[in-house]
Write the structure tokens for this entry.
Amino acid sequence: MIKKILIANRGEIALRIVRACRELGIHTLAVYSEADEQSLHVQLADEAICIGPASGSESYLRADRILSAAEIGDIDAIHPGYGFLSENAEFAEQCESCNIEFIGPRSETIKKMGDKAMARETVAKAGVPIIPGSDGPLANEIVATKVAQKIGFPVIIKAVSGGGGRGMRIAHNAVSFAKEFLSARMEAEKAFGDGSLYVEKYLESPRHIEFQILADKHGNMVHLGERDCSVQRRHQKVIEEAPSPFLDKSLRTRMGKAALKAAQAANYVNAGTIEFLVDAKGNFYFIEMNTRIQVEHAVTEEATGIDLIKEQIQISSGKRLSFSQKDISLDKHAIECRICAENPSKGFIPSPGTIDLYYAPGGHGVRVDSHVYGGYMVSPHYDSMICKLISYGRTRKIALDRMYRALSEYIIRGIDTNIDFLKAVILDPAFRQGEATTSYIEEFLARAPKDLLDKPVKESRK
Ligand code: MV4
């Protein structure tokens, strides 16, 4: 039985976990940095312990301090949220050996899927399509060039310990390849302490579509359909939606089956995500698995009606899934906009500071997941995302119109935000027609009028 949970995270996801625990009658212990003392997750948790200074590396990334707080708080389980220690196999292992339930998969699974070359190999063996590429990591640039030539240019060089775009390079020919390979190796070594690299054929402007998985400890596993996360900028997702406007029933069924095969190959337990790239013809390929709850989980929740955080906790408590695959469908359309403290007209530079005035939208079909409020100080130490705004309804059009309405209602004074930028995207005909690929934002910025980001968005639309 889980009676008390330590939340090893901050911001909106920490608050999201507090809320799920409240509804389950589970006590919560928040840990926080000195910069987060006034954050809502600290105020709303049953107990809170300060674990260090503002910097993540001195607080939310300190496994030792979090485990000390766990001992003081006498907790049963730790929810790691996303980012920070959520995909740290060593931390999960430490929890296991302290008899603390780590709310996520087993540490061996995190380790296996955290090695992106190993993950590729594991799912390919199970019959899941992968992008043509190298068999495992490449020893040096000479061997790697031969492999790249065999695959055919352009190729993409990826870090074995990477994910989310760091240590990644595209090479268009053998001459540039060696240079890109060495620079990727340096970046990966610096970022992950592991310079191992692999290569894949580079897909031009694919869609990024991922499947949500839930698996209990008794061998039951379901997928909760897909999320389309194609709208991203510099490997940061900006808008996500479920279902994808690109998938038809047949492709959804085939990709869902492949996602389950991939998760089964990893002996997966708890909530996880299988990421695919999909080309214009509907060919799909596994790229990686995320062994944590994700930022964009809320669109799946609103499209299916299933509370993923509660399911995670129930799975960790040893309960069986209360539904099977046939009970699950994406019967609503949900869209999420990530609202960030940043300035789009100045190259999206972060805009930390105090929120002088804050009014969040509401009403039918609108969900706001945020830890901020009027008077809140947005710290420069963390990610700039201050709110997830989710709209949902029976159809994509209803969700889109509702999103525009909700974005228009938002009042945030004192800091800059990307709200006007998001409004322009939601109104953009290409986005509305469901044509967005991973190149969308770059293309949108290139064709958008130069003053678009400086002026209020025109209210009229068809
Ligand atoms: C790719 C790709 C094209 N071909 N792999 C980006 C994040 C990471 N999870 C995987 N990513 C990609 N992998 C192959 N074989 C395109 C992306 C990609 C991307 C690549 C370069 C610059 C921007 C990008 C935006 C989205 C996806």
The chain has 15 helices and 22 strands. Residues 131, 156, 163-165, 200-203, 206, 208, 232, 235, 277, 287-288, 438 surround MV4 (CB under 6 Å). The domain at 132-201 is CATH 3.30.1490.20 (Dna Ligase; domain 1). The first strand starts at residue 4 and ends at 7.
